[in-house]
Every structure is written in C-alpha cells, then in structure tokens.
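Q: I have two molecules that I believe assemble together. Could you output structure tokens for the complex as a whole instead of separate predictions?
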Amino acid sequence: MLPKIRLGLVAIGWLACGGSFVLGATPVADSFLVKWTDRRIAQVRPKAADKGFENVGWVSGLRHAFDLGREHKRPIFVFTYSGHIDQGRC
Amino acid sequence: MRAGPLSDPRITKMLNEYFVPIYVSNTDYTDEEITSAEERALYDQIFASARKMNKPAGLVQVYIFDSKGNLSTSKHVKDVLEVENLLSLLREQIRQYGVQPGKMLEAPKPQLVRPLSETSDLLLHFATRVEPGNGTWPGIAEEFVRLNRQDWQQLVGPPDAEPGNEWELPKELAESIFTRIYPPTGAYDPDEHVFHKSSLTARVISVEDGTRIVALGGEMSMDHGIRPRDTSPSRVNAVVTGYLRYKNGASSLPQIRLSTFSATYGDGRFDNVIYSEDVTTR
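A: Yes, here they are, computed for all two components at once.
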C-alpha cells in the first residue's frame, strides 16, 4: 500500500492548489507526475517475494506428470482450481 | 493457495524434491479448445477416482496420487490453506511411500507467459496488490493486455499536438484498460463486470527534442463479483493517473505508466499499476 502520509500530502496539495494544480483528470501536479508514477510502480509491481510459487518446478500436462511419477517413483501432487493461478486470479 | 502454502519455501522445496507437482485449471481443462481429449479424460479420472474411494472430490482441491497413478488422498483447499496443514499432509505421504529426496524434475520458470504480439503492439503489464479482506485474496494479481497500434496511437495523440492540448479517449479504449483494475477475487473473469463510469483523458505536458510527455488521467466505477456470476457484486471505484513518453515519428513504441491514485473494492483499498514492457525485453 502507498504510505498514507505520502498519499495524504499529494491529496492536500491537490485540494489546496485547486484548479492550478489539477489539469484535466490528473490528480498529481505535472511537475511531480513522472516521479510519483514511477515510485508507485516500483512499490506495487511484483517482487521476488511475490514469486515463491514460481520456485516450484511445475509440470505441464497430466499425462506427463503421471509418466514422471512412474519413471521416478514419486507421488503426484495435483492442485485443481478454477481460474488462472499464473495470473494470481483464481 | 498461490500466495499462501504454495509460496512457502518449505513446501516448494518438498514439492520439488519428493513429488511431481502439477496444477490443473478447471477453466482450461473443461475447454475442448484448450485441452486435448486425452488430458480431459485424465482430468475426469481424478474426480472419478476420488468418488470411487469415497474421498472428497471437489473442484478446488489437492489430490495426491501414488507413483503408479492410484489416488492416495484428497483434501479440500480449506483443509490445506494453512502452511502447517499442507506440510503435514506432504510429510505423511512421503513417509507412507518411503519417497527419497531427488533432483527437481522440471526447472522452475515464470508461470505468467507474455502473450505473443506483433512488433507494433504495445504490451501492458498490469499488477494489482491488495490487503486481504472484503472477499479478496492476499497477494498479487498480474496480467498482460495488448494494445494494437491503432489503440496506442489514440493515447499518443496527433503528431502536431502541443503542450496543453487535451483529448478524451474513446470509452471502449478506456474500458479495455480499466477492465483489469480489480483486486484478486474468486471472480477471475475480467469480462464479468458492469461499468458505471469510465473516462480517460490525455494532455500533452511537454514536447522536447521531439519527445512528448503526455499526462493520462481517468476515473472508473464498475461492479465486479467476489465469486463467478455473483448476483450482488461489489463496486470498484478508482482514480487513475500517470503518463506516457513518446518520440514523434519514432519506430519505437511509447512508454506508458499508470497507477491508481485511489482505488477501492467495496470498503477495502487496493493498488493497481500498469506499465508497458520494454520492447527490448520481449
């Protein structure tokens, strides 16, 4: 989450400066816009800590998984779900 | 599961060294256009085996088969959502079958695959982060959206645009972007929504040496469910802002960067950012 204080300062600036601060539908002053947006993206975009799930060597295809199980004498772990786990939407 | 036990290092290590790990999307495995008949038959067999053995046979579940393909156990997801519960289940299975640790069978790789695109397409990466609550899942959701040349040229504006020039983007284009701005919920389909408001405006901030910076800002309001086909979906409200950078007449694509200034889903907050992928990393 964006630190509340920083968001608060931008919002106060936005309100305080009225029309001169807000042009079009952009709630951040032009002079801050690039820096503000870049900082937000750095904060929110996926980090290594979000990718623990990708440290598993997931196998693709049930036939392949069962063949590997037989070949390597290993149990097969199957997780069934609805949606798109690769996107984090499931 | 993704942000919880399946990201825990003790579990990922155990899955890699003792098991053949696979995840199976019911969405894909019930679609004849995506999944082969053989794969669908194996998928059906998972549930048939569980029913035959009077074990739980739900759609969102962990199934463990022995190395010969016989079902050993099945657990509803709610019973293995806690890391410790899944760890004990895995340990129990390892003991039962006397499995010895071995090398990883497949190399780990990024699971979210970038869609193939034309060189003139702009690939936008969406990332949404939310604190759990209000029916949302913890963790991050990410996906790609392609804008073709005709779409991104509308964002860039006319070649002779000057500082101060402002234009409203078509509603369809705004909605094609806004439609991905929602937190991770059980309703994973981005098309399952109703827009109440969607506006996106572009305004040239500066033009220097042929490179323009365009401010982008907009507002959206749409209903999106907590679960598929939700009859009383929650409301997503967001103010979005950011910029694009583009060199006039260049063969390269514009760089687009957007972020929610404020975003709520029901009573809870979430954050979403959108950024174009660097063309050189494709």
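A: One point stands out. Chain B has two domains: 5-97, 122-281.
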